[in-house]
Amino acid sequence: MPGPNSGSTIQIHSFKHNGQLHRVWEDTLVLKGTEMVVIGANDKTMVKESDGRTWITREPAICYFHSEYWFNIIGMIRNDGIYYYCNISSPFIFDHEALKYIDYDLDIKVYPDMTFDLLDEDEYEAHKIEMNYPSAMDRILYRNIDYLTGWIRQRKGPFSGEFIDQWYERYLTYQ
């Protein structure tokens, strides 16, 4: 299935393994959309949580999704540098309703100096039991954490010095 069209606005839907809707980002502008990669941007976007709470993102962000990797990357542009929030998740699908993925709890937060922390291991362990993750899930997710941390260390893809800047400049042309 083809990706979303560049210049279109889409929603992003995050689900949990049990199929429950977890979180919805209302408006993300597609900067690049193919079957393999979607790069989007948003700023001050409404986010709806599964419990009904809503909040607004605080800063511009560039979002990177890949159809073969079990993670997605959000580069948040702040005054003191670029912070990255990486969700360990299923590869995305786009079904013309929204870009969708399953959130597998684990996250990596990357700081402007490119140091990083693995977050929410306790949440992952609890949900692994509660939602009966398949036994192969650990191998898949931790292998993709290895890929992701390799990208961070090598400054590859979204972690390269110019990636966020270039896509943010493109985003500004739509404003």
Automatic annotation (TrEMBL):
Query: What protein name applies here?
Result: Nucleoside triphosphate/diphosphate phosphatase
Q: Where is the DUF402 domain?
A: 18-156
Write down the required cofactor(s): Mg(2+)
Q: What class of enzyme is it?
A: hydrolase
Indicate the family of this protein: Belongs to the Ntdp family.
Name the reaction it catalyses. Answer: a ribonucleoside 5'-diphosphate + H2O = a ribonucleoside 5'-phosphate + phosphate + H(+); a ribonucleoside 5'-triphosphate + H2O = a ribonucleoside 5'-diphosphate + phosphate + H(+)
Residue positions annotated to bind Mg(2+) 2 are D105, D107, D120, E123
* Role this protein plays: Has nucleoside phosphatase activity towards nucleoside triphosphates and nucleoside diphosphates.
Q: Where is the active site?
A: R23
- Superkingdom of the source? Bacteria
Q: Write out the entry's keywords from A to Z.
A: Hydrolase, Magnesium, Metal-binding
Which positions in this protein are listed as binding Mg(2+) 1?
N87, D103, D107
Output the Gene Ontology terms for molecular function. Answer: magnesium ion binding; nucleoside diphosphate phosphatase activity; ribonucleoside triphosphate phosphatase activity
Q: What is its EC number?
A: 3.6.1.15, 3.6.1.6
UniProt key word NADP: no
Locate the coiled-coil region(s) and give their ranges: none
Q: Which InterPro entries match?
A: DUF402, FomD-like_sf, Ntdp-like, SA1684
Source species of the chain = Lentibacillus kapialis
Specify one Pfam family.
Answer: DUF402
